[in-house]
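[Solved] Which block belongs to which protein?

Original post:
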Amino acid sequence: MASPVPKDPAKRARRNKDVAPVRYIAPAQAVVQPELPEFEVERASKDGEPYMVPFSWPAATRDWWAMLAHHPLVDEFFAADWSYLLDTALIHAAFWKGDLKLAGEIRLREAKYGFTPEDRAKLRIFSAGAVEGEVKAAAAVAKVKSSRDRYGEVRRLDS
C-alpha cells in the first residue's frame, strides 16, 4: 500500500521555520571505530581483601559493538561519539550480565543515534530507498487522471 503524496509546501497553512539554522561541520580528523578495550575490575574476596580480575565482554555486547561498524552514520562519528558509545557498551554489558534495570538507559542512548525507525524519523534521518519509493509513488499518483486510469486493468469475474 502506497503512502499518500506529501502536500506541496506552497499549499501548507503553516510554514513553521526551524528554530535554529542548520550548521554543517566535518570532523577535524577521520575517526575510526576503536576496539572494545581490555581492562581489569576490582572484586572483593571473602576475607574482604580486594583483587583485580579481567573484565569479560558478553557476546551480545561484542555483537552490538560490531554492528556499529555498519551504522549508516559511522563515517560521521567524532571521537566524542565513540567515547559515548563505549560508555553505552559498558551499560550494555551490565544489562547482558543481568542488571535488567539498565534497559531504559540503553534505549535512551541508542535513540540518540537512530537505532530504530522511530528514532531515525525523530532525528529526520531517512534512507535513500524510502525517499526514492515516495518519489515513484508520487509520480504514479500524478499520472492518474480518472478512475478509469486507476482501475483500467480491473475486470469483473463472472461467477
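(Second protein starts here: sequence line, then its C-alpha cells.)
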Amino acid sequence: MKYRLIGLLLFVFYSIQAQEARLITKDEVLAKVQENNNTLKMAQQDVLAAKGDFRQTNAILLPNISVSHTGIATTNPLMAFGSKLNQKILTAADFNPGLLNEPSQIEDYATRIEIRQPLLNFDGIFQRKAAKAKWNATELQSERTQDYLALEVEKGYMQLQLAYKTVEVLQKAQENALENKRIADNSFKQGYLQKADVLAVEVRVTEIDNQIQYAKSNIKNASDYLSVLMNDNNNLILKPTDSLSLVDHTIATSDFSENRKDILAMNSATAAFLQMHKADKMSFLPQLNAFGTYELHDDEIFQGDASGYLFGAEFKWNILEGSKRFGKAQKSKAEYKKSILELEQYKAESQVELNRAKRSLQDAKNSVGLTALALRQSKESLRIRANRFEQGLEKTTDLLMAETQFSQKQLEYYTTIFQHNYALAYVRFLTKE
C-alpha cells in the first residue's frame, strides 16, 4: 500500500511537470520549423528528386561504359570454331571437315568492355533542358514553401499570444466578478439586495469560469499546432515570451510582383513543358552514336591471352513509328498551352488575392481604432457603475451588463490586433519576392 501511494504521488508529480508551460520565442519556433518541419523536408526531397532526373540526362553527353565476363562451353560447330578463332589457337588441323562438323567441347572465357558515346541526339538535348527547368521550378517552389511556413509560424505564434491574452482578460474579469460577489453578499446580509441579485452575480462568476476553461483549451490547441509545425512530439504547453501587441506599420503599397517565388516556379514549369514539346518534335530527326568494344578471350577463367577491338559509328533514323510520335508531340503541345493558361490564371488570382488582403489590412486598421475607443468607453462606464454599486446606487443587472461589455470589448480589441497583425503578415507574404 505504501509503495502504491508513492507511485501515485510520483505519477501526479510528473503529470503536473508535463503540463508546465514552456517559454518559447518566435525566432526559436521559426528555427525549429526550418530544421524539423516535415512539409519542408518533403519539399527538399522533391528538389533532390528533380536534381536526380536532371543528372540522368547526362547520358546524352557522357559515354555509356559496361564490362562483362562470360564463360561458355560448347560443341556447336560454329561457336567452337569462332571461340578458337577468338582465342587465336586455330591451327591447320582444325580445318579438317570431320573436326569442323563434330568438334570436341571447347571452353571460352571472354572479358568484354563496351563503350557507347552519343554524338548527335537532338531530342535528348531538349529533354535535358526540360529537366533543368523542372529542377529550377522545384527549388523555387521549395523556397516559397519556406515563406509559407514562416507565415504559418507568425499565425500560430499570434494565436498562442491571443489565447494567453484571452485567459489574462478573463482572469481579471473573474477577480472583478468575485469582488462584486463579495459586495453583493454583504449587501444581501444587510438587506440592501434581493436573493435574485446575488444569484445573478453568481451566474456571472460561473460563466467566466466556463470561458476560462475554453480559453485554456485554446492555449493547448495553439501549442499543439506549433508543435506540429516544429515536428515536436513532446506534447508540451507552450507560452510566448512576449505579449500580443499592435504592429505599428503603414499599409503596404507594394504591387503584385512576377518575381515572386511561386510565379517564377510556374514560369520554369511552363518552360519545362515547352522544352519537352521541342524534344518530341526533335525525335523525328536522326541520331548519330559512336561505339567501340575491346575483348579478351582465353580457355581459362579471368585470363586473356588473346585480345581484339572494334569501333565504329551508327547513323540511325527511325522514320516512322506508326502515329506514336505524332500523338506524343500533340500531347506535349497541349500540355504546354495548358501550362500557359494556368500561369495566367494563377497570376490573375494572385492579384485579386493581394487586393483582398490589402483591403482586409485597411479594414483591420480601422477596426483597431474603433475597438480601442469602445474599450476606453466601456472601461469608464464600468468604473462609474462599480463605484455607484458599492454605494448602493446602481442595479446589479446594470453592473453585470457593464462588466460583461468591458470583457467583451477587451477580447474584441485583442482579436482585432491579431487580425491586423496577421493581415499585415499576409500582405508581406503575397508581395515577397
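Accepted answer:
You had them paired correctly. Confirming on the second one: The mean pLDDT is 87.
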